[in-house]
Every structure is written in structure tokens, then in C-alpha cells.
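Narrative progress, year one. The postdoctoral researcher (J.K.) led the effort to move from monomer predictions toward full complexes, under supervision of the PI. The following entry was the first complex the group processed end to end, covering 387 residues in total.
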Amino acid sequence: MPRSPSGLPAPAPEALAASERLRAQICAEAERGPLSFARFMALALYAPGLGYYAGGSRKFGEAGDFVTAPEISPLFAWCLARQSADILAQLGGGEILEFGAGTGALMIEMLRELERLDALPARYLILEVSAELAERQRMRVLSEAPHLAPRVAWLTQLPAAFEGVVIANEVLDAMPVQRFRLGDGDVEELRVACTADGFVWQACPAEARLAERVRSLARACGFDAPYESEVGFAAEDWLRTLADVLHRGVALLVDYGFPEREFYHSQRRSGTLMCHYRHRAHADPFFAVGLQDITAHVDFTAMAEAAHAAGLDVLGFSNQASFLMGAGLMEFLASPLEPRAQLERAAAVHKLTLPSEMGELFKVLAVGRGVDGPLSGFRLRDDRARL
Ligand SMILES: C[S@@+](CC[C@H](N)C(=O)[O-])C[C@H]1O[C@@H](n2cnc3c(N)ncnc32)[C@H](O)[C@@H]1O
């Protein structure tokens, strides 16, 4: 039985058995030495057949572990569709490429709105690391919008070249991070070891890339020992790879996170790791491995710097509320609805835009190449100066 942070519901026996198989696999690998947390997180989320995103658990929605913006309301997708249509018009064409498409909710509603705007791209591509989710997306478009299905194609790797709009909603937070500790001595990496009682943290000397980054962050952000947090090299490397293939177009990266100075604020002394299990958020990544989501907030300054270093322009940065309103959210609210639907829509708008909900913590970063005009999503607010 996994150690349970207080109050979490116990997993079912068959789920526990799968978790135990993944634990054994991770421990076999850790026999050669403690694993970096990034490796542990990669296995916990993506180990074939057993990782959280690679296994069969429900994940999204009421019966799952968390709810994302496209699941709350189609309004989110419709705003992204409008922004995408503007970009495709500026480019004179192009395709859409969505990373990590979850249940397919964003894809379906974006395509519907693009159809209404008479701006459908020839292809809507999806790059999904989870075979199980890719299958769910395929079934969904076939059953809910079969006439749009021929436009949707699934990729197993990045195309050699891409022109158009790239969308990644809540994908960066699911990319593996390394954990560090700044103590009295040098920078340490917090690695993961196996014991008879379960996984434990083990402090090891940090390798050069991590140690240099932490020292530079400590100088720039003014934190001192004792201090623990994360660095998301995998997300930065991912953005560099994307930059290589994005010949013309814009990547819209939506996620929860902060500019660097807020992320590494001297009072945020234990980082941003967050786990989601049946709609409870907690901070123990070692609970029920493979059965819960593990995430870290996004350092948007690091993402913007990685994009800039790879030759992309940083085109806009704002919170989700301002982006959605800039992209046309209020125009969708003008259409009359039945009273009940009107109430539901109002509740969704609150959830997506209120600062106490997703409006402020969630940010949108736009990076791209060959797009000169301003992007409508940032016309009300553009916080690039805060990055
Ligand atoms: C929290 S879910 C978000 C799903 C969906 N975008 C949504 O908003 O509902 C994270 C998704 O990111 C995907 N993912 C993580 N790393 C990825 C990568 N390198 N390439 C493509 N998808 C990735 C996962 O498989 C999963 O579908």
C-alpha cells in the first residue's frame, strides 16, 4: 500500500498492482544509482503501459484527476481558434499542430470555430506521446465531427519542417524537471532512490549544467540557502527542437507558471511540484506512482530565453484572462442562450478568467518566426517586459 498523503482516496486493487509493477521497474533502474527526478518523472508519467499518461486511467474530467481549460468550456478553444485564424491569414495559409491533445476537446472545438470562420486549415496535426489518448482523440472526432476527421492526422514525431500555428495547452507542466537544493555548501541535485519503505530523496552533487543554472538564478532572483526548487531543462530542450522545425508561424504555449523572478521568489522555498489525484492537489510525487499526475509550474522566462536563443521572436506574454478577452471572448458572450446555458457559460467564463481561478496563474506565451503583425490575444495586455 503506498504511503498516502492524508485524506487521499485509496486506489483500487488492480490500479495498485499496476503501480507496483511500475515501482519495481523504476527500482530496477535505480539499482545502478539514484535517478534524477526528471528520469523518475518521465517514467512515472510515460513508461509504456504503466506511466500515468501511457496507462488506461481516466485522468481528465469529473471522474479523473484534473480538469483543463478545454474541458471546462468550448469558449477556450474558440478564442484560440480566432487567434489561430488571424495568424494563418497573416501567413497566407499553414497548418495547426497541437501537442498533447488530451481528450481531443480543444481539437474538436477549434476545428468547429475555424469552420464557422471559413478558415479551416488543410490539416490539424496532433503529436501525442500517449497511445491511449491518441486513440481517445481518434474516436472522439469520428463520433462528434466525422466530416472534420479527414483533416486530423496523428504524428509520432515532429515533422522536418512546419508552417502554421503550434498549440500546447498544459503540456509544458507535464515535462520532466530536475529538483535542486541550495544548502550551505554547493548546489545539490535531489535524486530518487528506492528503499524497502518506498522512494526517498537523495541529495547528490549537481552536474555542471544544473549547478551553473542554480547559481545564476540565485544571483538574479536573490534567493539564498536553504532553498529547493525545480529546473525544467526538458521543456527548454523541447522548445529548441520545435524552433528548428518552425520555419514560419507561431507557437502558443498556455500553462500555469510565472516569469523567473516570481517562480524563484525568495519566499517560494520548496518549489512548485504539484501532484493531482482524484481532484486533490498535493505535493508527494512518490504516492501511487503511475496513478497520479505529477506537474511543475513553468518558468516562462526560461522558455522565452530558449526561444530567443533558437532564433524565434517572442511575440507576446500575458495572463490567460487578458489573452482570451483580447482574442474575442466577449464577442462569444453576446449571442443569446437559454437561461440555464447562459448560467453555465457565465460560470465557465468565471473559471477561465477570474484571478482566483485560472485567469492569472495561467499564462500564454507566443513565440514564432516570420509573423510581423501584432497578435490579437495580446492587444489588451502584453507583459513581455516582466519576462
Ligand atoms: C495535462 S495534459 C493536457 C492535455 C490537453 N492539452 C488539455 O489541455 O486538456 C498533458 C498532455 O501533455 C502530453 N505531453 C507531455 N509531453 C509531451 C511531449 N513532449 N510531446 C507531446 N505531448 C506531450 C501528455 O501526453 C498529455 O496529453
